[in-house]
C-alpha cells in the first residue's frame, strides 16, 4: 500500500510541475536505531504520509503533524517489498 500511496502522490505532484509544487517534506532522525523518518505532505489538501516511523518517536511525530495542521493518511515502511532481513527494519533492536 505504501508504494501505491507514494506513486499517486508523485503523479499528482508531477502534474502540478515546476519548483512551486505544494509539497512539504520533513526529515526526522531517531539516534538509537539510526533511523530517518520522513513526513511527506500536500500543502493544498493537508494530507500526509509518514515513511519509516519508529515506535519510540510516535509522540514527536504526532505532535509535528498536529502543529503543521496535516491529516495523516498512512504511516509505514517505505520499502516493504524488500526481502528479510532488511537493514531499514533496525527499529527492532535487541534488548
Automatic annotation (TrEMBL):
Source taxon at top rank: Eukaryota
GO biological process assignments: glutathione metabolic process; hydrogen sulfide metabolic process
Signal peptide: none
Any one GO cellular component localisation term in the record: mitochondrion
GO molecular function, one term: sulfur dioxygenase activity
InterPro entries: Mito_Persulfide_Diox, RibonucZ/Hydroxyglut_hydro
Record protein name field: ETHE1 persulfide dioxygenase
Originating organism: Colobus angolensis palliatus
Lineage: Eukaryota, Metazoa, Chordata, Craniata, Vertebrata
